[in-house]
């Protein structure tokens, strides 16, 4: 039975390792991949109508740029090795959005790359990997 694997992908070296790991698993087991790119967007801002309009315009431009420069090349690369792949591009909190994508897609697993950040920021605000480990509705694989 074919399963879906959601791969958190931001174009970093760590996300390439995660995609490579997931592609190997998917190819061996006949699974498919949903490559997910999440652009962080804070809902905690207070903007005027003019600022909101400018923000929405920038948002559309960011989505188009991310789809063309980040997602399309990896979708083409993974498709070329015979693995079924689709792409999802969303705004939001990264860990929460990956969990929602996994639920919406009926995924069996989430795969992300470890960024290796252990500084003060991740201690205060938490990391994506830490949040996914606590909140994900499906098993999470963190690729070193």
Describe the structure.
52% of the residues lie in helices and 20% in strands. Helix 3 packs across helix 5. The chain has five helices and five strands; from the N terminus they run βαβαβαβααβ. The longest helix has 32 residues. The two termini are 28 Å apart. Strand 2, helix 2 and strand 3 form a beta-alpha-beta unit. The protein has 144 residues and is an alpha/beta fold. The protein has a five-stranded parallel beta sheet, sandwiched between helices. Belongs to the universal stress protein A family.
Outline type: globular
SS class? alpha/beta
The biggest beta sheet is recorded as:
5 strands, parallel
Distance between the termini: 28 Å
Helix share bin:
40-55%
Q: How many E strands?
A: 5
Summary?
The protein has 144 residues and is α/β, with parallel strands linked by helices.
What structural keywords apply?
52% helix, alpha/beta, single chain, globular, five-stranded parallel sheet, 144 residues
List the helices and strands and how they pair.
Elements: E1 4-8, H1 13-29, E2 32-39, H2 49-80, E3 85-91, H3 94-105, E4 109-113, H4 120-125, H5 128-135, E5 140-143
Family: Belongs to the universal stress protein A family.
Domain UspA: 1-144
Protein name: Universal stress protein
